[in-house]
């Protein structure tokens, strides 16, 4: 000790020297012990210095990674909060930032583990790893079952060796674990009885199955459907995974089950479509789908029609309906919306034009322009070409979107009042700016074409100022087709037009469940279990908006 600090009884002066045993009347053995202790202290000091160097080296890496992680998290959170922009604008940035964030967090974790390894190499006696300097994590989900693994405690006191130990309590450390899916076969046993009086044979009726002549239970069918249409995992990849788990299911078997489920759930799809058609206003968008043809592929289209009244505090549940068409012709939209009349939030697709005819029966559809779609054109010019005129227009549109964020989820009359007071002057100023800028530009200019896109449809863009139910963008429909666009990377193309129609029958179930904050897999499993014996007149009880996960868990228990 005194090789580092002076004894308490001596003043701490610069000329002080370690107190040798010779200063006292101690024997020679004391001098030898003092020298040994000094060697131990020197070794400990070297060990501390080595550990400190290892820690500082890691902290130099950690400092930069933590700063990068915080910047990435803030930028990702900012992009996710934006009420405008589409996947073409935000999606690419989010994907890149999320990949960078994953890489930075992995680098930070590797640096922390490297520090622990370096410390353990310097001091092997330290068995406990250094605590990671990470933010406090929340507790693991309470609804999960707990499996206790009790570590045997000491049988004797490590201090005095005594055997009289009494339990004071326990320290519990929880880790999250997951095991492979459990496969099992359910045997439905129907006992046969013979009547001793008339010798007739009686037995219970056969139980209902989720699909006709099917050998798959509701949970397995729900997993297959969810994996195919929510996780975009093709059937042949699912079959490969099941084979690795010891259950061989051919692609044709899985396809038969999917086709049978499509027929069984058709009544629910019809109810969702009727609910969407009865909306006060709708969103619509489409996405191309490659369809396999002879020696090549052709392009079909999946259309999404969304009802979402939550932005104006509507009481109706949100829902999404889909339909497939072999071509991108307006007649397909006209046929699906033949009984709808009212506002429609959409892009400037020319195939919609006949829907806006005042003489249309049962009434004209009112076009509502998508400000996010128009903004995107100016954003690309400002971002790629550094056009100052386009950047100023983007800034003006963003100011209008800021107001919309404040009134999102409020009643229509309140939204309308705020728009009249605050948004209308901004929209009028923007229109004047657009017309003034357009007068100075050549018709061949990209900025002029972006301005023409808005001015030629200005009544549709300004319609939200007079109706508190309307939204400023068509993002609800674009989100509904985004999953399909992502899924194309996995399944590449649809096998036929029938496959496209089948997908259009399954996507409403998946997307409507997600819009109502319901787990699609759990909901489908419960519906497939109840549907065979459920009365047709009470089919609405099975819709996602009326289904409660708590009831399902209670019934399962």
What is shown here, in short?
The protein has 557 residues and is of the alpha/beta class. 50% of the residues lie in helices and 8% in strands.
Task: Write out key terms for the chains shown.
557 residues; alpha/beta; 5-stranded mixed sheet; two-stranded antiparallel ribbon; 16 helices; flat; disordered N terminus; disordered C terminus
Instruction: Report the principal-axis shape.
Output: flat
Distance between the termini: 65 Å
Rg to the nearest angstrom?
35 Å
Characterize the biggest β-sheet: 5 strands, mixed
Per DSSP, the total helix count is: 16
Helix content: 40-55%
Q: Element order, helices and strands? A: HHEEHHHHEEEHEEHHHHHHHHH
User: Strand order across the biggest sheet?
Assistant: 5-4-3-6-7
Beta-strand percentage range: 5-15%
Give the tally of β-strands.
7
Mean pLDDT score:
82
Low-confidence stretches: 1-19, 83-88, 127-136, 553-557
Structural class: alpha/beta
Structure description:
The protein has 557 residues and is of the alpha/beta class. It is built from 16 helices and 7 strands. The strands form 2 sheets. A 5-stranded mixed sheet has the order 5-4-3-6-7, with helices on both faces. The protein has a two-stranded antiparallel ribbon with strand order 1-2. β3 and β4 (296-307) form a beta hairpin. α8 packs antiparallel against α11. The longest helix has 54 residues, at 28-81.
């Amino acid at each position: 000790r005194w090789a580092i600090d002076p004894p308490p009884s001596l003043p701490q002066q610069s000329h002080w020297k370690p107190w040798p045993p010779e200063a006292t009347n101690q024997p020679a053995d004391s001098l030898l012990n003092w020298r040994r202790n000094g060697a131990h202290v020197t070794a400990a000091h070297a060990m501390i210095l080595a550990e400190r160097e290892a820690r500082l080296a890691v902290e130099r890496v950690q400092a930069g990674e933590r700063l990068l992680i915080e910047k990435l998290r803030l930028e990702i959170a900012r992009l996710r909060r934006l009420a405008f922009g589409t996947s073409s604008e935000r999606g690419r940035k989010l994907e890149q930032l999320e990949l960078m964030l994953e890489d930075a967090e992995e680098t930070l974790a590797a640096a922390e583990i490297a520090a622990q390894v370096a410390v353990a190499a310097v001091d092997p006696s330290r068995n406990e790893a250094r605590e990671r300097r990470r933010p406090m994590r929340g507790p693991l989900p309470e609804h999960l079952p707990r499996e206790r693994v009790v570590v045997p405690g000491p049988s004797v006191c490590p201090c005095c060796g005594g055997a009289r130990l009494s339990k004071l309590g326990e320290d519990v450390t929880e880790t999250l674990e997951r095991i492979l899916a459990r496969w099992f076969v359910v045997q439905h046993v129907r006992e046969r009885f013979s009547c001793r009086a008339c010798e007739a044979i009686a037995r219970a009726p056969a139980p209902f199955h989720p699909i006709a002549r099917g050998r798959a239970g509701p949970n397995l069918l729900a997993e297959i459907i969810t994996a195919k249409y929510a996780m975009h995992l093709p059937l042949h990849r699912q079959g490969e995974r099941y084979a690795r788990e010891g259950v061989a299911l051919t692609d044709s078997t899985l396809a038969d089950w999917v086709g049978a489920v499509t027929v069984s759930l058709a009544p629910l799809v019809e109810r969702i479509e009727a609910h969407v058609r009865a909306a006060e206003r709708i969103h619509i968008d489409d996405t191309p789908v490659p369809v396999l043809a002879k020696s090549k592929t052709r392009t079909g289209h999946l259309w999404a029609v969304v009802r979402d009244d939550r932005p104006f505090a509507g009481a109706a549940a949100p829902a999404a309906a889909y339909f497939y068409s072999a071509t991108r012709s307006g007649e397909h939209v006209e046929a699906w919306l033949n009984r709808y009349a009212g506002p429609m939030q959409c892009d400037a697709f020319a195939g919609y034009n006949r829907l806006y005819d005042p003489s249309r029966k049962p009434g004209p559809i009112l076009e509502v322009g998508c400000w996010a779609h128009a903004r995107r054109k100016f954003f690309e010019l400002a971002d790629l070409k550094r056009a100052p005129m386009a950047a100023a227009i983007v800034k003006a549109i963003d100011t209008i979107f800021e107001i919309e964020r404040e009134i999102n989820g409020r009643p229509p009359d309140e939204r309308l009042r705020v728009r009249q007071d605050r948004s209308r002057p901004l929209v009028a100023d923007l229109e004047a700016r657009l017309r003034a800028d357009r007068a100075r530009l050549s018709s061949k200019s990209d900025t002029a074409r972006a301005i023409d896109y808005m001015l030629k449809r200005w009544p549709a863009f300004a319609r939200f100022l007079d109706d508190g139910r309307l939204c400023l963008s068509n993002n609800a429909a674009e989100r509904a087709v985004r999953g399909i666009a992502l899924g194309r990377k996995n399944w590449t193309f649809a096998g036929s037009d029938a496959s496209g129609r089948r997908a259009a029958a399954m996507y409403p179930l998946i997307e409507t469940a997600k819009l109502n904050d319901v787990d699609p897999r759990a909901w489908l499993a419960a519906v497939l279990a109840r549907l065979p014996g459920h009365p047709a007149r009470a089919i609405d009880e099975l819709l996602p908006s009326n289904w409660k996960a708590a009831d399902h868990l209670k019934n399962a228990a």
